[in-house]
Amino acid sequence: MGMHTGGPRTALEAVAWRRLLVSIWPWRSAGYLLATLPVALAALVVLAIPWLVLSARLMAGDDQAAVIVLLALLGVALIATLGPLIAVPLVDVERRRLHMVDARPAVPAVLGRRDTTAAGPASWLRARYAAPATWREVGYVCLLATVAPALSLAALAAPLLTGVFIASPFLVMAQGPDSAPVTLAFEQASTVGQTVPYVIAGVLLLPVVPYLLTLVAGGYAAAARELLLGGPGEQLRAELVEVSRSRARLADAFEAERRRIERDLHDGAQQRLVSLTLQLGLARIDVPPGSPAARTVGAAHEQAKLLMAELRELIHGICPQVLTDLGLAAALGELADQSPIPVAVETHLAGRLPSQVENTAYFVTAEALTNITKHSGATSASVTARQRDGGLTLEISDNGRGGADTGGGSGLTGLADRVAVTGGRMLLSSPDGGPTLLRVELPCRPSQPQPG
Predict the structure, then answer these.
(1) Are residues 93 and 206 in the same domain?
(2) HSE on the CB side for 252, CA within 13 Å?
(3) Cα–Cα dist 334/322, whole Å
(4) Containing domain of residue 304, as a range?
């Protein structure tokens, strides 16, 4: 019988389940505890040797303080240096084993493993030893090397001892009258009559053993889950981080697709349209002036030129060439030149910025200037871009009537979403009567010198 839908999801929940004795939970719990022993042995061999030697010397009555202190320091140093490394495979095994007694998803806490591995071993080690989750994993390894094997052995011994108690009359009969008595717990039995109390105890313990196995396995699994996966708050943070990473990956994919479309339009459709316009121009020269064919070819030629201009505007809107070639400062200047109202631009950039940051800053500025022109009634505006403290600060202000609201469907919500994808934030101050100030903060690092 397996785990039923709507039944307990964990071994601890199964302890209070009335169908525990006829379910698979005790067997899963026994398998989980049995599988704990080899994993615990691996942790014990690597990390617990100094402590085992120290315990043996203390039990032998060794009172040499220097030796005791040295062994203790060696044990602590071994845990501190090798613990985070040994924990990696042991924790991965434990996360897989948890499914035996815990049906909930085992989403790992955020340890930064995937992000730092690509940066090299040194970066991985720094992040590994600095992460708080790493030391919770080390705590789990210490638990695995000490408490886990003792609990597992004790719990697994219970069904064996119960079986011995119930089978004790047969064990005594198998020994024969002249053989040594059978040892049962703390006493010995040489006759069948002496085994009766043990048989009764075994029968009484028989329904208790499944609860004991399930309780011990569930308690140990709950402690392991808390150490390795964190509480609900940390699980939520891990999921939010993964959502943020997914959003950033989608933004990168969108950016790459946008550049591909721009390149295809520029190198394909635009070139063919230019060729068509030239051919129509040549045909316009060849046909007799004033003829019906001349009027038709002339109209087609003008429409082709208009279409080519619209296509250039479309390509420019997808990926401005000046932004790609000269960077953000030049692109902001071009936006100011194209604006119907005077726009003062001030930039303080130490170098070229990551492409995603430059694109975000450019399109936010373009949309903001469009909104100013359409809705604010402003007669002037200003754009300031500063790069400092590992970030880009973009401020766009105007002397219009104010009253801009992100909840009014003005497109500001879309700008905030675009900024949030890069991990930045957008602030708006727009009292009635103006002025309006839009401040955007984007995290970034310089990638190359800014072209002059």
Answers:
(1) yes
(2) 8
(3) 8
(4) 234-318
| Neighbour-count burial of 210, counting CB atoms closer than 10 A to its CB (0-12 exposed, 13-18 middle, 19+ buried) | buried
- Whether 258 is in a domain gets the answer yes
What is the helix (H) or strand (E) element at residue 162, kind and residue range? helix 147-175
- Please tell me the number of Cα atoms within 13 Å of 190 on its side-chain side: 5
| DSSP code per residue over 21-74 | GGSSHHHHHHHHHHHHHHHHHHHHHHHSHHHHHHHHHHHTT---HHHHHHHHHH
CATH of the domain at 364: 3.30.565.10
Tokens standing for 207? Answer: 């329904």
Alpha-carbon gap, residue 202 to 60, rounded angstroms: 37
In-domain check, residue 3? no
| 407 burial type by CB count under 10 A (0-12 exposed, 13-18 middle, 19+ buried) | exposed
Cα(377)–Cα(401) distance, integer angstroms: 6
Strand ranges, E, within 381-422 = 381-388, 391-398
Instruction: Calculate the dihedral angle through the C-alpha atoms of 321, 324, 326, 328, rounding to the nearest 10 degrees.
Output: 110
Residue type, 159: P
Which of 284, 318, 352 represents a domain boundary (last residue)?
318
What is the token pair recorded at 187? 């006493």
Q: Identify whether residues 56 and 179 lie together within a single domain.
A: yes
> Residue 201: in which H helix or E strand, if any?
helix 196-205
**How much is the pLDDT for 370?**
86
The string of DSSP codes covering 282-337 is HHHHHSPTTSHHHHHHHHHHHHHHHHHHHHHHHHHHHS-HHHHHH-HHHHHHHHHH
Query: Which of 230, 264, 299 represents a domain boundary (last residue)?
Result: 230
What average pLDDT does the structure give for the chain?
A: 79
**67: in domain:** yes
DSSP 116-161: HHTT-HHHHHHHHHH-HHHHHHHHHHHHHHTHHHHHHHHHHHHHHH
381 three-class SS: strand
- Give the pLDDT score at 31: 94
Count of domains in the chain? 3
Residue 6 inside a domain? The answer is no
For 313-351, what is each residue's pLDDT tens digit?
665 556 677 777 788 888 888 888 888 899 999 988 887
